[in-house]
């Protein structure tokens, strides 16, 4: 079985997740947006953190990466297309929060079609550009970590640097809409939801299904 623990961190209330293989104890930290001590507090005896993954490079999803990488001695992974977004993150962090930080350098890059193994599970990488060029979602079993691609009732903004609304609709149509209605959606901000509910009530997901 897989287990998921959630910690809401930072002024922008980012959902940071700990994905755990309940049999082996292998785990992945997803979107460590801030407050590394809180994220480390999710760890349990017997767990082994395999990697830190950012669904995209905006500052509110990576502020705690360096502290966690130092503390746990693990690799930081993201999609290569968000390198420019990550490079801009310090400027945006200062503009929004008055915070100064050096952006973490990814140890490796994630590509769609290359599964990431977690214990006995295969974590599927879905490249879902739109909110940012290198946005990804992570799918394991019936759980989707949607980053800022899909929220309960909404989607991520596309008016930031690198955003593209039409591309986001295409990502939703081609990568998200075909998934099983029972898929649990764990977004980068806000409440979790079910994909079937979003297909019925999320206006953006409904628009995307008709998007050319």
Structure overview:
The protein is an alpha/beta fold and about 210 residues long. It has one domain: 4-Layer Sandwich (Metallo-beta-lactamase, Chain A). It is about 25% helix and about 30% strand. The chain has helices at about 35-40, 65-70, 85-95, 165-175, 195-200, 205-210; strands spanning about 1-10, 15-20, 25-30, 50-55, 75-80, 110, 115-120, 120-125, 135-140, 145, 150, 155, 185, 195. The strands form 3 sheets. Strands 1-2-3-4-5-6 form a 6-stranded mixed beta sheet, covered by helices on one side. The chain has a 6-stranded mixed beta sheet with strand order 7-8-9-10-13-14. Helix 3 links the parallel strand 5 and strand 6. The protein starts with a strand and ends with a helix. The model has no long low-confidence stretch (mean pLDDT about 95).
Fourth CATH level, the homologous superfamily: Ribonuclease Z/Hydroxyacylglutathione hydrolase-like
Derived from helix and strand composition plus strand pairing, the structural class reads alpha/beta
* Helical amount: 25-40%
SS elements, strand count: 14
If helices are DSSP runs of H or I spanning 4 or more residues, what is the number of helices?
6
Distance between the termini: 38 Å
CATH class: Alpha Beta
Spatial arrangement of strands, main beta sheet = 1-2-3-4-5-6
Q: Beta-strand percentage?
A: 25-35%
Q: What is the CATH architecture annotation? A: 4-Layer Sandwich
CATH topology: Metallo-beta-lactamase, Chain A
């Amino acid at each position: 079985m897989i287990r998921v623990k959630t910690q809401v961190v930072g002024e922008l209330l980012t959902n940071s997740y700990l994905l755990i293989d309940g049999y082996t104890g292998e785990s992945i930290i997803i979107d460590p947006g801030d407050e590394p001590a809180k994220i480390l507090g999710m760890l349990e005896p017997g767990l082994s953190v395999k990697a830190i993954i950012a669904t995209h490079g905006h500052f509110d999803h990576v502020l705690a990466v360096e502290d966690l990488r130092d503390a746990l001695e693990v690799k930081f992974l993201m999609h290569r297309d968000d390198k420019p977004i990550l490079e801009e993150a310090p400027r945006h962090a200062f503009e929004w929060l008055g915070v100064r930080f050096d952006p973490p350098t990814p140890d490796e890059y994630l590509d769609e079609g290359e599964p990431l193994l977690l214990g006995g599970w295969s974590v599927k990488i879905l490249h879902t550009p739109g909110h940012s060029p290198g946005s990804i979602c992570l799918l394991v079993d019936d759980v989707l970590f949607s980053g800022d691609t899909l929220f309960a009732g909404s989607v991520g903004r596309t008016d930031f640097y690198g955003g593209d609304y039409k591309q986001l609709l295409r990502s939703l149509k081609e990568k998200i809409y075909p998934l099983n209605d029972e898929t649990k959606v764990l977004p980068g901000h806000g409440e979790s939801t079910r994909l079937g509910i979003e297909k019925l009530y999320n206006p953006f997901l409904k628009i995307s299904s008709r998007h050319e």
